[in-house]
Amino acid sequence: SYIGLGARVRDHISIGTRATVGMGAVVVGDVGDGETVVGVPARRR
Q1: Could you report the per-residue pLDDT of 10-31, keeping only the tens digit for each?
Q2: How far is CA 31 from CA 23, 39, 41, in A?
Q3: Cis bond upstream, residue 41 (ω within 30)
Q4: Percent of the chain, pLDDT > 90?
Q5: Residue 10 contacts residue 27 (beta carbons within 8 Å)
Q6: How far apart are CA 30 and CA 15, in angstroms?
Q7: What is the value of pTM for the model shown?
Q8: What residue segments make up the domains of the chain, in order of their start?
Q9: How many CB atoms within 10 Å of residue 44?
Q10: pLDDT score, position 38
């Protein structure tokens, strides 16, 4: 998995294998395997 610079991940959130969290994203829900999320709040892309 890759978590971009400045991204925030809330407590008890799961980040899947090969997932990508964009720079500055705020993750408020689980991210599945291979998914990419970006934005505030983070959304699938």
Answers
A1: 999 999 999 999 999 999 999 9
A2: 15, 13, 12
A3: yes
A4: 98
A5: yes
A6: 6
A7: 0.92
A8: 1-45
A9: 11
A10: 98
In sequence order, which residues have a C-beta less than 8 Å from that of residue 11 and are 6 or more positions away?
A: none
Rounded to whole angstroms, the Cα distance separating 38 from 4 reads 10
Residue 43 identity (one-letter amino acid) = R
Tokens for 16?
């899947």
1-45: CATH architecture: 3 Solenoid (2.160)
Q: Confidence class of residue 43 from pLDDT cuts 50, 70 and 90?
A: very high
Exposed e or buried b per residue across 20-37, where buried means at least 16 C-beta atoms within 10 angstroms of its C-beta: bbbeebebeeebeeebbb
